[in-house]
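Practice record 12: protein with IPE.
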Amino acid sequence: MQQPVHVSIIMDGNGRWATARGLSRSEGHAAGAESVRACCKAAIKAGVKYLSLYTFSQENWNRPTKEVEAIMGLMASNIISTMPEFEQNKVRFRVIGDMERLSPALQEQIKGAEDHTAENDTLTVILMFSYSGKWDIEQAAEKYAKAYAVAGGAPETPFESFLATAGVPDPDLLIRTGGELRISNYMLWQCAYTEFYFTDKLWPDFREADFLEALEEFKARDRRFGKVKR
Ligand code: IPE
Ligand code: IPE
Ligand code: MG
């Protein structure tokens, strides 16, 4: 039975979850943070090595200021509140995305948490924050072009080493909650052969049992990578 090394999640549906309860969208994001904790625990138990979470896209910067500010605040407060658990469980914490758009204070906080957990190796939790697939490919192309100019030809380093996700294996399984059947500018390069799992459950309702259900379905998938089945 195959086991995914890298599970990724498009955590969608916080707003609808909140609206259905007469709450603000920001309260929906706060509730979603509990599902993040639950899935981290489930990933550790299941032996998953990388869990990446689409937390905030480049396009999400276009949301109302109040909502963006609430998400930035939740990012800061959850890093603080989750650190002891990460420390205890030897979880490495990383954030991937366009950090330059974040406030200097948040950038510093993220760097501190990354440095603090850098030696941990049970599970690597990666928040994809201020991230988008096209942004990643563009920034990689810029670096590649510079390397090309320096080398006076194609550099020895493969293109994908310039992606923001360099060193992280491509996702084996991508889960999307919230019922939409799209990729919303996520890891466009990295998902070339990823298995997709869609569920109508809204992110704040998605917990350990749901995560394990997705893993079970993954086990039965027949991955061929373009080859003929033997
Ligand atoms: C996902 O939930 C979280 C972010 C995109 C930040 P949404 O806020 O998109 O929730 P819906 O899709 O509107 O319900
Ligand atoms: C995708 O959800 C982004 C994250 C979950 C962070 P969106 O709610 O932004 O995606 P669309 O707009 O429905 O495609
Ligand atoms: Mg959404």
